Amino acid sequence: MAPSSRRLEQLSWPELQRQAHRPGSTVLWPLGAVEQHGPHLPLGSDALFADRVSDAVLARLDPELPLWRLPLQSIGFSPEHQGFCGTLTLPAEVLLALVMAVGRNLAEAGFARLVLLNGHGGQIALLEVAARQLRAAHPSLAVLPCFIWRGPEGIGERIPEPERSHGLHAGLAETSLMLHLAPELVGPLPPADGAAATTAPEGWSLEGAAPAAWLTADISTSGVVGDPAGADATLGASLFEALVEGWRRRLDALLRSDWPPNLHAR
Questions:
Q1: Which pLDDT score, from 0 to 100, does residue 3 have?
Q2: Is residue 46 part of a domain?
Q3: Cβ distance 172 to 229 under 8 Å?
Q4: Domain total for the chain?
Q5: What's residue 208's pLDDT?
Q6: Helix-strand-coil percent breakdown of the chain, rounded to 5?
Q7: Quick one: angle between helices 13-20 and 92-109, nearest 10?
Q8: For residue 5, is it within any domain?
Q9: What is the CATH number of the domain that holds 75?
Q10: pLDDT tens digits, residue range 112-149?
Q11: Contact 183/175 with Cβ under 8 angstroms?
């Protein structure tokens, strides 16, 4: 199977029908966002990351495995970044409806699994809701909502503190990754944003066990939540390798399994 044939939109309908009915047939859907990423990163950073990771993972997998990918969904759910020019956000109900509609079509075609490979942290919970609703509406389709930065081993150990805990947006990790993947899109690195130094009360955090529904403007004047100082392409290459290999291992294991339970009984 040529790498290009893993693109679902490049198949004819009879070929798609044949591939959809292979045991364990799986569709990978990269999702991102178009939202401010500080004064130095492009609006489409999350979308670019999801797209590049997806392509690199597909290139490393056994071409005989029953996996295809959908075109990138660039615009997502980004209300926390409204107020910064350039942010585009779909209402929650629109993104939910989109996932439901596409998932319904895939289920009706005969696919067994849909993996949502999401590059935007602000829509993790919403895509988990969409996945649960889609699974309930179409029991024949297993739905696996994933966040590219959550899961692969070795990500955290590559990022020093305090960025590991507090670099939530356009900080060291994302800036380094973009310097590796598309350095021509990176502008001059801004100084650390003093507004981001706001600390939460003990036991609370922006994200974590006891999070707040924060808006970027609450904690940053630049749009950066973290500090990109020290970002470089070498760190970005290391992060990219960890992301790609981590998701390659997970997808390889998934495609060679009957997971989730009762996959073939539905």
A1: 46
A2: yes
A3: yes
A4: 1
A5: 81
A6: 45, 10, 45
A7: 80
A8: no
A9: 3.40.50.10310
A10: 999 999 999 999 999 999 999 999 999 999 999 999 99
A11: no
